[in-house]
Amino acid sequence: HMSEALEKTIGQLEEEVVAREEFVGAFAHELKTPLTSIIGYADMLRSRKLDEEKSFRSANYIYTEGKRLETMSLRLLDIMVTKKEGARLQKVSTETLFEYLRNMFLPREDMDFQFRYEEAVVTVDAGLIQTVLVNLIDNACKASEPGGTIEIRGRQEERGYRFIVKDYGIGIPGEELQKITKAFYMVDKSRARSRNGAGLGLALCTEILSLHDSVLEIESTQGKGTRISFVLQNRDKEAEHEEIDD
Ligand code: ATP
Ligand code: MG
Is the minimum distance from the CB of 136 to ligand 1 under 6 angstroms? Predict the structure, then answer.
């Protein structure tokens, strides 16, 4: 038993090391490319007299890429803080969560949001779960044509309360499904970048859900759309089980 347990721990540690190396590699890559061009454009601006259009384009590039790096570092910080601080679980009504989302996306008149949910009480860190849902809805919007329908659902199932975000957008190729939750991974980099993507949203969601003992469940058909959902287990039942076990 002992050696089995040891082997398992070693296996997990090895996986962690590989994951960390992959992460650092991806991070370095993500930093290097925009920095190289920012430095290149800045050097051009300071060393040459450029015509107005060229100098505007250079400054604009520095600005937008700088902004992107800013977003990226803020998101990385989010992930780190989440990991460190953990979740503060409280009982929250699903109405509170859905009303927050409704208000959040109200100004976005370019999309057709459809909210439908069953009222229930869930045990969550409300701020963190809102972050997850906002990220999923943001992705759904980015994958859809203007005016596209985004369905946001919540329903009680046997295992717990399921949140669903469904879109009718570009979809995700089957072979990419496993990868999209990895930090910095984007199926179509230029498309994602043009929409200000850093490839970190789903990595953050995964981190947050693991604090809630939950995972993202992703179903997608290329060209048809995507449905991403997760279940929050009924905590009360779990607590009862624990008592019985003791
Ligand atoms: P960020 O969330 O950091 O702003 P991002 O949206 O590109 O950037 P993720 O949210 O982690 O990053 O998503 C990773 C990739 O997964 C996206 O770039 C996109 O290719 C793909 N993806 C995620 N959600 C969907 C969806 N609903 N439909 C199609 N592709 C999606
Ligand atoms: Mg995203």
Answer: no
Helices assigned H by DSSP within 106-194? 126-143, 189-194
Instruction: Give the C-alpha separation, 127 to 147, whole Å.
Output: 28
Nearest CA to ligand 1 atom 17: 186
pLDDT tens across 80-89, in order? Answer: 888 888 888 9
Q: Going by C-beta distance under 8 Å and a sequence separation of 6 or more, which residues neighbour residue 216?
A: 181, 202, 205, 206, 209, 228, 229, 230
Residue 193 makes CB contacts below 8 A (sequence gap 6+) with 68, 186
Question: Does the Cβ of 201 fall within 6 Å of ligand 1?
Answer: yes
Classify the C-alpha dihedral 125-128-131-133 as positive or negative. negative
Instruction: Identify which of 152, 184, 185, 202 to mutate to test ligand 1's pocket (most ligand atoms within 8 A of the CB).
Output: 202
pLDDT digits (tens, 9 = 90+) for 99-115: 999 998 988 889 999 99
CB distance 137 to ligand 1 below 6 Å = no
Residue 135 has pLDDT above 60, yes or no: yes
Nearest CA to ligand 1 atom 15: 186
Q: Average pLDDT of 137-142? A: 95
